[in-house]
From TrEMBL:
<feature type="region of interest" description="Disordered">
    <location>
        <begin position="266"/>
        <end position="297"/>
    </location>
</feature>
<protein>
    <submittedName>
        <fullName>Putative membrane-anchored protein</fullName>
    </submittedName>
</protein>
<feature type="compositionally biased region" description="Pro residues">
    <location>
        <begin position="267"/>
        <end position="283"/>
    </location>
</feature>
<dbReference type="InterPro" id="IPR018682">
    <property type="entry name" value="DUF2167_membr"/>
</dbReference>
<dbReference type="Pfam" id="PF09935">
    <property type="entry name" value="DUF2167"/>
</dbReference>
<keyword id="KW-0732">Signal</keyword>
<feature type="signal peptide">
    <location>
        <begin position="1"/>
        <end position="24"/>
    </location>
</feature>
Amino acid sequence: MRLMRLLAPLLCAALLSVTPPAAATDETPISLADKAVTLTPSPAFQYVAGADTQGFLSRHWQGRPLAGGAGLGLLVPVGSAPQPAWLVALSYDGSGHVSDLDAGRLDADALLSALKSADSGGPRLAGWAQPPVYDSASHTLIWATRRQADGGAVDGLDYHARLLGRRGVLGLDIAARMSDLPAIEGQMPALLSMVRFTPGNGYRDYVPVADQSVTLGLSGLVAGDALVKGGLLDHLWNGIRSQNFIYLVAVLIMMLGAPRLRRYWGPKPPPARDQAPPIPPPPPKREDYDGPKGPWS
């Protein structure tokens, strides 16, 4: 019995050592962009809040440029510290709703030409690493560009993803090297699954005319101001075809045409009841009177 008492703790420890650990549970989503976006943390990425971004970049990024703004913070692959090969900068532009009406008219050659014409300073833009691709189901636009290093070798990679929402656009921008492209493409489904628009702030929640919109379109998200420099008329034409402009013109036509439609096809007003009946005209005066005549006739 004494031997069993001594061996019992050892047996329990052995059983606990072979028992698989409990599965990790999802953490509470983090609210971002004035509660328009939620970020669900993942064990594969470390989240750096927006207030701590500059400190993290100065310690671990060594002044290297980012591919976009990081107003909402950073996502850093776990295990890549102290010097990560790449990281994700999160941003949100709440200037207004961006329409995807030009999804079928994304001209990769024209967009690349506009980007090159506006490119100045730093590693030179060499071409597409991935031409713009739009997913209409998730309302997500993805593209990537290659940049040429000082020695002439194509080394730099700028990877971009844009999620369209009701009142703005959520951005994921990655600065990396071309050798990191397969790893980034493999992680993009997980990255996109971490961020979500909250109920009422998704693309399908957009209310025409009532919600503010911008006339960029998907081409404008890719090329930005380069579209204006490379082709102002095309940029304006994309704006004219935006959703708000179309809805506004339709409302104005309805407002101007409604009175005429009512005049011709609407119900006629009833006659006024207070109006006196018309007075019949007096009988015609007869000149040939044949009645009895007086003494002076």
